[in-house]
Amino acid sequence: MNTAVQQQSIDPRAFRDTLGHYASGITIISGIDETGPIGFTCQSFYSVSTEPPLISFSVMKTSTTYPRIRQTGKFAVNVLSHRQHTVSNQFARKGTDKWAGIPWTPTQAGNPVIDETLMWLDCDIWAEHDAGDHLIVLGKVSEMSPADWNIHEPLLYFKGKYRYLRPEEEIA
After folding, report:
1. How far is the C-alpha of 45 from the C-alpha of 150, rounded, in Å?
2. Which of 28, 36, 59, 153 has the fewest CB atoms within 10 Å of its CB?
3. Residue 68 in 3-state DSSP?
4. Torsion of CA 43, 125, 79, 110, to 10 degrees
5. What is the pLDDT of residue 35?
6. Are the beta carbons of 72 and 82 closer than 8 angstroms?
7. Is 58 helix (H, G, I), strand (E, B) or coil?
8. In degrees to the nearest 10, what's the CA dihedral of 149, 153, 158, 161?
9. What is the C-alpha separation between 27 and 14, in angstroms, rounded?
């Protein structure tokens, strides 16, 4: 039988460690403003609706990059492939040139799509909601990569480490 932790005693670190048991993909949320390309690593991303086509991501309120993206009203989601863990690390660092050595091409709206991503979506900001120490951002998809865009496997994050799928272990 599981022992439940009462809500009043939830330690933030223990909460984070517990949620680390949920495997997720890694994305780079990117945009472009008058200074050039901008972006940040984001693990909290998911699809919301097919009609209209909506996605969502969460971002810390202390982010210095997201307010710049918000001002443009648009962004791209770059879902990283298993070969891009160094890209994830580079965009997670503060105070560095996150785009150094990162090849990209613009969407029709001008947002950066990082080369060799698993897939990408270009979005307009649809809504933003307060959520504790984060903001939940909804985006309406205006352009996306083709379904057969990339044959790579996804980059996953599980228990504080990058992980990879092994295609030979697929479940039927």
Report:
1. 19
2. 36
3. helix
4. -140
5. 95
6. no
7. strand
8. -110
9. 24
- Cβ-count burial 40-60 (b if 16+ within 10 Å, e if not): bbbbebeeeeeeeebbbbbbe
Q: Tell me, what's the pLDDT at 79?
A: 97
List, for the chain, all residue ranges whose pLDDT scores fall below the cut of 50: 1, 5
pLDDT at site 172: 54
Q: Which two tokens stand for residue 116?
A: 């060799």
User: Helices marked H in the chain — which ranges?
Assistant: 12-19, 66-72, 85-92
Task: Tell me the domains of the chain and their CATH numbers.
Answer: 24-162 (2.30.110.10)
Three-state secondary structure of 126-168: EEEEEECCEEEEEEEEEEECCCCCCCCCEEEEECCEEEECCHH
Cα gap 109→32, rounded to integer Å: 9
pTM for the full model? 0.89
Structure token pair of residue 10? 């939830």
Helix (H) or strand (E) holding 24: strand 24-25
Asked if residues 134 and 61 have their Cβ atoms less than 8 Å apart, the reply is yes
Residue type present at position 93: R
| Alpha carbon distance 6, 107 (integer Å) | 47
